[in-house]
Amino acid sequence: MKVSLNKKILSKNEECALQNRALFASHKTLCINVISSPGSGKTTLLSRTIRDLQGQVRIGVIEGDIRTDTDARKIRETGAPAVQIETQGACHLSAEQVTRALGSMATAELDVLFVENVGNLVCPSAFDLGEQARVVVLSLPEGDDKPIKYPGTFAKADVLLINKMDLKEHVDFDLERVIEHVRTLHKDIAIFQVSARTGLGMDAWYAWLKEKRAL
Amino acid sequence: MHEAMIAQSILEAIIQEAAERGLRPLRARISCGELNPINDEAVNFAFEIAARGTACEGMRLEVRHVPLRATCESCGHTFEFDIYSPACPGCGGADFKMNPDAPLLLEEIEFEDT
Questions:
Q1: Which ipTM was obtained for this model?
Q2: Domain over B3-67+101-111 is classified CATH 3.20.20.240
Q3: CATH number for region A12-214
Q4: pLDDT tens digit string along A169-190?
Q5: Do B105 and A156 touch (CB under 8 A)?
Q6: A107, CA 20 to 30 Å: which among A176, A196, A209, B63?
Q7: Helical ranges in A40-174 per DSSP H
């Protein structure tokens, strides 16, 4: 006997994500899920953002990595609070892990909470963490074929930060091609060309962040 | 391997449906969108392990992949969207809006006849 159900599978992850989102709303904290390949410069980008916005925007970071608290320690050097999640092999963060990490993070005292996901362009995109915005970082040395190879990740992002623009002269990276592909997947995505190392183009990203925070 | 987590959620949903009816589930069909694709082999592998010792032991999952659709802003035509050749088949236009990706659904369960 066949029974037709068409029931939405609201996974445990989605239930936790809803709770996280409600908590962020009640604390008026903007939560941003940051996704990229390993080595795109996420941590450097967040450290620079924290330093440049010191005194203007109160920022905290939840770091996700398979092993070590290297990134959380780097963030703490800026003076910002950071909590490290070690996933012990898991290739993405789950909403439940974020819920647990929130126990050690005073979100009510933050304007922006970044969740730096495990470096991976595949799995993190399938898991809602309860964030209000999703940022994908793509760096020039990774190559310009990433949006077409990992469409799900780019289609679901609100912002694309194209990082390591200071290396432009040294790598073959077709910027126009990337922007065209990404816009095909998501017409309204905000795209910023930056260098977290030199500070190039970061002001436009900060303006976006402040505007989003004010909404 | 995000399929492991998804397999657990599907298993719990099927166990609940089976318990409500007091019937033994044999097969189930799930569907997923193109932006959150599920690998058939990986989800079945994870499901098989998770289902051991439950009412779902030995079940097989069929995965239906629902294509992504877009609506052309120029002519209004809705079409199956191919990210590798993104153009409206109606007017050739390149200005379109993506429809929401299909959610993860438990579409159908086949139970043993009593």
A1: 0.85
A2: no
A3: 3.40.50.300
A4: 999 999 999 999 999 889 899 9
A5: no
A6: A196
A7: 42-52, 70-76, 95-102, 146-149, 151-155
